[in-house]
Amino acid sequence: MARKKRKITIAKALYGKKTFTSSDEFEFYRSYKMMKLDKKLVTEVHEAVGIAEGYIPVHTAEEELQAWQLLIDTGVAWKLQGWFGRQAKFLIDNNLCKEKVVN
Predict the structure, then answer these.
(1) What is the DSSP string of 38-67?
(2) What is the dihedral sign for C-alpha 95, 42, 84, 56?
(3) pLDDT tens digit sequence for 15-61
(4) pTM, whole model, 2 decimals?
(5) 19 falls within a domain
(6) Which domain holds residue 27?
(7) What is the dihedral of CA 35, 36, 41, 47, to 10 degrees?
(8) pLDDT band per the 50, 70, 90 thresholds, residue 2
(9) Collapsed DSSP state (helix, strand, coil) of residue 95
(10) What is the pLDDT of residues 76-94, one digit of tens each?
């Protein structure tokens, strides 16, 4: 039987959010805060992280590559755990993503 994930509630909001669906989600938001990620990008970046990790399903490989490209463009791919950077480098080296397409 699968364990039910517990929600986490904090007193001081991170990017306007006080309740998180899991400890993983909370840790990602803490990482975004440490990176000083622009508030406007948090939702978009968090969705891209979810797609990259596979817990947010997509219908096409193109959607997954777009998520990775966003992580590369924002620099988040290089600031999260090592797997993200290694995967981003693999995608760049194999011409599936570009080094950075926006400033």
Answers:
(1) -GGGHHHHHHHHHHHHTSS--SSHHHHHHH
(2) negative
(3) 999 999 999 899 999 999 999 999 999 999 999 999 999 989 999 99
(4) 0.82
(5) yes
(6) 8-93
(7) 30
(8) low
(9) coil
(10) 999 998 999 999 999 999 9
Question: Quick one: average pLDDT of 90-101?
Answer: 94
Tokens of 100: 């950075």
Query: Is residue 51 packed enough to be buried (19+ CB in 10 Å), middle (13-18) or exposed (0-12)?
Result: buried
Amino acid at 37: L
Tokens standing for residue 96 = 């599936």
Residue type, 68: W
- Per the structure, how many domains does the chain have? 1
Q: What residues contact residue 63 under an 8 Å CB cut-off, 6+ apart? A: 51
